[in-house]
Amino acid sequence: MKAFLLSLLLVPALVLAQAPVIEISGANFRPLPLASPAPTVQDGGDKKTAGAFDTAFSYDLTASGIFQVLDRAGFTADAKEGMTAASINFSRWADVGAESLVKVSLAQDGGRLRGELRLFNVATGHEDLKVAKDAPANEPRQLAHALADALYRHFTREASPFLSRITYVRKAGANRDVFVADWDGMGAQALTKGGTHILPTLSPSGQVGYTSYRKNRPDIYVQSPGGEAKAVVTDGQMATGVAFSPDGKRIAYALAEGESAQIYVSAADGSGAKAVTDTPYGLNTSPTWSPDGKRIAFVSNRGGSPQVYVMGADGSGVKRLTFQGNYNQTPDWSPRGDLIAFTARDERNAFDLFTVHAETGKVTRLTQDQGNNEEPTFSPNGRLIMFSTTRNGGAHLWVMTAEGNNQLPLPMEKGHWLTPDWGIAPAAK
User: Fold this and answer.
1) Any alpha helices (H) in 64-139, and if so which ranges?
2) All domains of the chain, ordered by start, with CATH?
3) 3-state DSSP assignment of residue 153
4) Which long-range contacts (CB under 8 A, 24 or more apart) does 340-345 make?
5) Of 135, 217, 290, 425, which residue has the fewest beta carbons closer than 10 angstroms?
6) What is d(CA 266, CA 283) in angstroms, rounded to the nearest whole number?
């Protein structure tokens, strides 16, 4: 597995006053060693609230893949050190290997929680970033995600995944229910209660499409969090695997009739449906859109075994993309456009995750020898992949870089969590 690496690339001379930009590529680079001490709490602050903030903020930085977050147990600086450069003994931070230092101060004013973040270059003692955000006092994790996003944007000049949302299925007994949550699986909200509801996916507007057996047959529904479910596809024997186009105006899905299943494309409300595959007695499933909305990747057994194919959104120019293995499924197209992640069954009958380059067909393995790993889904910026794994028993949601490194469990309670989908755009809260 190719190691996940990261570069510090200096910006042009006209903006030398700015901090280096982290470019997440290149063979000679590494994650940035970052010290992040616990936040200080000002008068009126609540330690429990600060603890919830710190847990979410630390997880964001650790899971991002661009930072080497240093262990606080090794810190030698005075715990009462201030927030300004003049009050900081930078040599103490250099001693523990930190190249950057981020400090956060929290204060509560009425019903609002305010956080101030300051970022320092340890070598120069220069303050590179100062930003303040606020959130409802009972939403410290929201504030944590916002400040982590500001730090991520400062270093990468692109949006983080920390303000995005995910949807997934919780299996409990005979029930399969759909949930929507923050990117880390926390703050979950149930959309369904009881019955069988599977394969959820998020639209750019925050709606969730999923397959439901509420009428004793699989149909496709669309639902907003807190709203009522609306049936949009009720044709055929089985309608599954809905995927929203990047602009949210169209959906693609699989519709089974007789002994075949074809990919259909329609308006987001299900109108104007048109089959874009036509393989009698063949199965075509699991559509996923390219980020420009011009192509669709999908799974077909037309060649004898389930493989990943690519075609135009109108069904033209069908091209087989995977040739290794005899059971490839659940493709997800990166928002960056280059990679398609998928699940494959290997020679041991275990399921693992791979990516295939959409143009060259180059396949890269991401997981191995750690239970079954399935249902990959890219973060909105294409830098991370979330998936379901049985490596610790049951099924849990984990996250890793798009190169397969820095694999971490989401900080969710124990349960059986399946088929995650990451929104293709951040959703404002």
Assistant:
1) 90-95
2) 32-156 (3.40.50.10070), 165-424 (2.120.10.30)
3) helix
4) 340/288, 340/297, 340/308, 340/310, 341/366, 341/376, 341/377, 341/378, 341/385, 341/402, 342/308, 342/376, 343/373, 343/374, 343/375, 343/376
5) 217
6) 19
Q: Is residue 274 helix, strand or coil?
A: strand
- Classify residue 20 by its DSSP letter: P
Return d(Cα 279, Cα 413) in angstroms, integer.
Answer: 43
- Please give the Cα distance from 256 to 239 (Å, whole number): 6
Q: Is the pLDDT of residue 94 over 80?
A: yes
Using the Cα atoms of residue 302, residue 306, residue 310 and residue 313 in order, give the sign of their dihedral.
Answer: positive
Report pTM: 0.92
Cβ neighbors of 79 (< 8 A, separation 6 or more) are 37
Which helix (H) or strand (E) element contains residue 412? Answer: none
Indicate the residue type of 156.
Answer: T
pLDDT at 6: 35
d(CA 92, CA 125): 12
Q: What is the pLDDT of residue 221?
A: 98
pLDDT digits (tens, 9 = 90+) for 194-224: 999 999 999 999 999 999 999 999 999 999 9
